[in-house]
Amino acid sequence: MSRVTSRADVGRLTATPLAQLQASVNAQVALVLITAALVLWAILFSNYPLVHDTFHELRHSLYFVPCH
Amino acid sequence: MRIRRTALVVVLLAALLAGVWPGQAAPAAQVLVETDPPAPAIVPDDTLVTTRLRVVDANGMPVRGARVALHLDTPPRPKVITTDFPHVEGTTLIDLETVLPDGELRFQAVYPIRGTYTFPARVTLPDGQIVEATPTLSIRENPAEVRNMLIMVGLLFAFGFVSGLIVGSGRKRAGVAALVLAAFWLTGSTALAHNPSGKEPSAQAGPVTVTAEADGLRATATISPGSGAVGRLNEIVVRLTTAGGQPVAGQISLAAIHLEDNVPIYRFDDLPLDDDGTARVAVQFFDGTEHELRFTARATDGRAVAWQVPVEVVGFPPPLNVKVRMWLLLLAVVALGLFLGLWVSGRRADRQLASSGGYQYSTAHRN
Q1: Is the separation of the CB atoms in B296 and B304 below 8 Å?
Q2: Which fold has domain B208-311?
Q3: CA dist list (Å): B174 to A27, B184, B297
Q4: Which residues of chain B neighbour A10 with C-beta distances below 8 Å?
Q5: A3 contacts in B (CB within 8 Å)?
Q6: Which pairing describes strands B233-242 and B250-258: parallel, antiparallel, or unpaired?
C-alpha cells in the first residue's frame, strides 16, 4: 500500500483508470445536456401536433415559451 | 457689460421662440386612452378589456362629431425573452376609421401579449383641424406565467445540479443512465418532427361576403381575406341598405368570438354607419383557430338584422430563431446547474481527501 496525498498523485499513479473516469465524466455530462436539450425541445418547442396539443397549455403558462 | 447684453439677447430670443414656436401652442384637442380594468390589472391573452379613446378639448370636454382614424399597434419584438405570440409582435391589431358622435370610441379587446401598445390616431375635428396623437398602453406579463417561469428555471437548475453531483461522484449510475436513455427514446422521436401530418387549415385568400335580410333591411358583411392568419389584418366592411339597395342610416355592432373557448376577443358596439350605409374595421385574429364574427345592424328606426360569419384562422409555428434562442437559454440554466454540481462534487472530494489524510491505494495500479 502507498499513501497518496493529493488528486494529482492519484493521477500519476493511476493514469489510465483516471483518464477513463474523466472520459466517462465528459460523456455523462454530454449525455445529460443532450437529453435535457431533446426533452426541452420536444415538450416546449416541437411543432409535432400530438406533442404541441398535449403541452399547449403548459407552453402558454410559461413566460418564455412561444406557442404560435 | 457685454456679457449682460448677450444674456439679455438670449433671454429675449428664448421668450420670442416660446411665443411663436408651433409646438408650444396649446393643442386644439387631446386624445386619451382609458381602460377598464386599469392597465395593471390586465392579463394578456385573458382579460377582455374595455378601451375608451376619448377626444377632448382644452377644457377636458368631449369633442362631438370628430372623425378618428385609429391603429392599435402591438408591442415591438422583445430583444431577449419572447412572448407567447411572436407573430403578433410589432403588428397591427385593429385599424378603423369612424365618426365619434359623442367624442368617444369604445371597444372591447383581448390584448394578446405583454408590452406597450400604441394607438396612433389621426383625428379630424368638426372645424377641419387635424390632431395627431399616439397614446400608449403598457401591459405587464401575466403574474402566473412569471411565477411558473421561476419554478421552471428552479427545476431545471436543480436537475442540472443534481446531475452534476451524481456525475461528479464518479460512481456508476446505471439507473440514471437508463432513465436518461428512456427520456431520449420517448422524446427523440418527436423532437425533430415538423407537423408530419401536413394538415394545415385551408386558407381562403379571396374575400367572403355574407348577406342577411330581415325587416326590409339587407345587411352585407365582406371579410377580406376570407380567412385569418396570425399577424395579418382582416378587413371587415359592413353595409346596411333597404331591400332595394338604398343606404340606411344606423349603427352596427360586431363581436369576434374565439370558438374554442367561446369568448369574445373583440367587440365593437354601435359603430355609426357612414352616409353610404357602410362601416369598416380591420382586426387581427391572433390565435390560429376557428373564430366567428357576429354582427347586428340597427337602423335608426329600430329595425335590426343579425347574422354571423365563420372565420378560419391559420396559425404559424413560432420563428425558428426565437425558438432556438429560448431553448438555448433554458439549456444554459441546466448547464449552469450541472457545472455547479460538478464543482461542488469536486470540492467535496477534495475535503474528504484532506480529512482522511489521503487515499489508500493499491500498488497494483502503479506503473
Answers
A1: yes
A2: Immunoglobulin-like (2.60.40)
A3: 14, 15, 70
A4: 359, 361
A5: 357-358, 360
A6: unpaired
| Predicted local distance difference test score (pLDDT) of residue B189 | 45
Candidates B144, B123, B125, B143; CA nearest to B133 is: B123
B:311-330 residues touching chain A, CB 8 A cutoff: 315-319, 322-323, 326-327, 329-330
Q: Inter-chain contact B191–A65, Cβ cutoff 8 Å?
A: no
- Measured distance CA(B281)–CA(B268) in Å, rounded: 9
Q: Where in chain B is the domain with CATH 2.60.40.1940?
A: 208-311
Q: Measured between alpha carbons, how far is B178 from B302 in angstroms, rounded to an integer?
A: 73
Contact predicate B235/B284, CB 8 Å:
no
pLDDT in tens, B104-158: 999 999 999 999 999 999 999 999 999 999 999 999 999 999 999 999 999 999 9
The one-letter amino acid at A66: P
- A54 part of contact set with chain B, CB < 8 Å: no
The helix (run of H) or strand (run of E) holding residue B105 is strand B104-110
Query: Tell me, what amino acid is at B168?
Result: G
Neighbours of A40 (CB within 10 A): 23
Residues of A in contact with B148 (CB under 8 A): 61-63
Residues B227-271: pLDDT tens digits?
Answer: 999 999 999 999 999 988 899 999 999 999 999 999 999 999 999
Secondary structure (DSSP) of B326-338 = HHHHHHHHHHHHH
In chain B, CATH 2.60.40.1930 covers 25-141
Give the right CATH number for B25-141 from 3.30.1510.10, 3.30.70.100, 2.60.40.1930, 3.30.360.10: 2.60.40.1930
Which ipTM value was assigned to this complex?
Answer: 0.73
pLDDT more than 90, % of chain B: 66
Whether residue A20 lies within 8 A of chain B, CB to CB, comes out as: no
Interchain CB distance below 8 Å, A39 and B187: yes
Residue B196 to residue A44, Cβ atoms within 8 A = no
